[in-house]
From TrEMBL:
<dbReference type="GO" id="GO:0035773">
    <property type="term" value="P:insulin secretion involved in cellular response to glucose stimulus"/>
</dbReference>
<dbReference type="InterPro" id="IPR033522">
    <property type="entry name" value="IA-2/IA-2_beta"/>
</dbReference>
<keyword id="KW-0812">Transmembrane</keyword>
<feature type="region of interest" description="Disordered">
    <location>
        <begin position="94"/>
        <end position="138"/>
    </location>
</feature>
<dbReference type="InterPro" id="IPR016130">
    <property type="entry name" value="Tyr_Pase_AS"/>
</dbReference>
<dbReference type="GO" id="GO:0045202">
    <property type="term" value="C:synapse"/>
</dbReference>
<feature type="domain" description="Tyrosine-protein phosphatase">
    <location>
        <begin position="164"/>
        <end position="424"/>
    </location>
</feature>
<dbReference type="GO" id="GO:0030141">
    <property type="term" value="C:secretory granule"/>
</dbReference>
<dbReference type="InterPro" id="IPR029021">
    <property type="entry name" value="Prot-tyrosine_phosphatase-like"/>
</dbReference>
<feature type="compositionally biased region" description="Low complexity">
    <location>
        <begin position="124"/>
        <end position="138"/>
    </location>
</feature>
<dbReference type="GO" id="GO:0051046">
    <property type="term" value="P:regulation of secretion"/>
</dbReference>
<dbReference type="InterPro" id="IPR003595">
    <property type="entry name" value="Tyr_Pase_cat"/>
</dbReference>
<keyword id="KW-0732">Signal</keyword>
<dbReference type="GO" id="GO:0004725">
    <property type="term" value="F:protein tyrosine phosphatase activity"/>
</dbReference>
<feature type="compositionally biased region" description="Polar residues">
    <location>
        <begin position="107"/>
        <end position="117"/>
    </location>
</feature>
<dbReference type="InterPro" id="IPR000242">
    <property type="entry name" value="PTP_cat"/>
</dbReference>
<keyword id="KW-0472">Membrane</keyword>
Amino acid sequence: MLCQELTYPSLLVLQKSKLKFLPRQAEQEDSTKFIALTLVSLACILGVLLASGLIYCLRHSSQHRLKEKLSGLGRDPGTDATAAYQELCRQRMATRPPDRPEGPHTSRISSVSSQFSDGPMPSPSARSSASSWSEEPVQSNMDISTGHMILSYMEDHLKNKNRLEKEWEALCAYQAEPNSSLVAQKEENVPKNRSLAVLTYDHSRVLLKAENSHSHSDYINASPIMDHDPRNPAYIATQGPLPATVADFWQMVWESGCVVIVMLTPLTENGVRQCYHYWPDEGSNLYHIYEVNLVSEHIWCEDFLVRSFYLKNLQTNETRTVTQFHFLSWYDRGVPSSSRSLLDFRRKVNKCYRGRSCPIIVHCSDGAGRSGTYVLIDMVLNKMAKGAKEIDIAATLEHLRDQRPGMVQTKEQFEFALTAVAEEVNAILKALPQ
């Protein structure tokens, strides 16, 4: 019995010892497998990260080279006229009484202006200043692969100066058909033209209602610019008003249903009058039957101002709000100092215009060089934003010249249009989900 009692506990201890030993061995094997799997997973993750980093570096390097090239394409026109005009605006604002009364429609105008402002009105005064701002590209339906192809094409086009030169020579040789301008050359209409080199075609001109005209004429040097819809113009390209055509200009604004005016010239350049001052500095002015009331003026940045007007037809007592975007730093037959400033300006215009169906009135001095360049850039980018697969900028320019002569006057302006399109496509691609 004693022997059995001694043996049984010893066996029990042995069995317990085995029970404890076997699980430890299994745990060690499982631990080894887990460590191996972890190392393999880490290696895979590291490989993916390295590949992603390499792709990012290559893309970033490509974008950086493009930006350097684009920035090198800018021009540096003189800034005396612009600086003087901006200083005049600032001096006028500095001497303005802080609580100038707005008139009977102030609250309504403020609410309309807020639709295109980046923030609330800083003060109840008619004029204010904003030091800086920027607009992001609007939502675009651009296909990513198409965008990259277009960007590559633009980059190659801008590098190949011989190709650009030949394409510009072909554009200069292009003749619109039909191209008759007999109405613009009538004796009574000649004084209404700022430049005899830019006359409206007979088949493509804005017709005023003669019964509402102060001169009982239907003529104004302005051309409707069609895009995809031949019944509804997307733009009206026109010259800067002359003293004798200001009433005609506001009649056109009213009869076209326009709510946005894009002005691309300083009033005076090197002592030469580029455009008549066709709006009131304060209060209201009467142009035939159209009363124009300045509601607000904002200096958004060094390059442009935004003005809001109340336009009233005294015959019908109807009123409308019109917004003028005035780009200051673009000189005759030249290009802006940077494409970025004009692209920011364009985004601001389009933010205000969004949802409208009326034409945008675009004018510089003669309504052809700077106006044509702006319309070309805007039309091409709008097509691309809508998902167009094929874009031919030269063919688009020929389409514009079919409707108004002289659209885009110099090779530098055409090259600037290519540069601006390339830069905006690059910005849109960066904003799209990859």
